[in-house]
Specification:
The chain is of the alpha+beta class. The chain has helices spanning 3-18, 25-34, 77-88, 94-103, and strands spanning 37-43, 48-53, 58-61, 108-112, 117-121, 127-131. It has one domain (3-131): YdfO-like (YdfO-like fold).
């Protein structure tokens, strides 16, 4: 296992110990930012996550949301916002959030840890961007 992977895994593990159930994403984001991660690019429905970091890029392959051939849902901004609020309120697991995002037509989302934004994309160029607050996690 490379140093970049160890660094990423240590940051993720630490973030899980300090983040609250409600509104926890900014804690994770700040922990990753401090560990040198600049961007996180998620591809749905493959659940592939690429972390761009100071040490080296790292890819993490999650459990895909679909198998075989599938229709891509139409981009549903309101459905995406609902999925975000449910997750932000601690009412869903991360896999449930990913599935809800996919059902809302999200095929990719990018987290920019420097700008503190998350951009969600549909397959026809649709985009929804949300900013998150900076935190001082000590």
């Amino acid at each position: 296992m490379g140093n970049a992977i160890e660094n990423l895994q240590a940051a993720q593990k630490h973030a899980m110990t300090i983040r609250p159930k409600v509104g926890g994403f900014p804690f994770l984001a700040e922990t990753l930012r401090r560990a040198g991660v600049t961007k996180n690019i998620w591809s749905l429905p493959a659940c592939q996550s690429i972390f761009l970091a100071d040490k080296a890029p790292v890819v993490k392959q999650g459990q895909p949301l679909v198998s075989g051939t599938a229709d891509i849902p139409a981009f549903d901004r309101d459905g995406l916002i609902k999925a975000l609020r449910v997750d932000q309120n601690g009412e869903s697991t991360f896999p449930e959030f990913l599935a809800a995002s996919w059902r809302a037509g999200v095929v990719r989302y990018d987290v920019d840890f420097e700008k503190r934004t998350v951009s969600y994309y549909g397959c026809n160029g649709e985009e929804y961007v949300e900013a998150y607050a900076a935190l001082d996690i000590g």
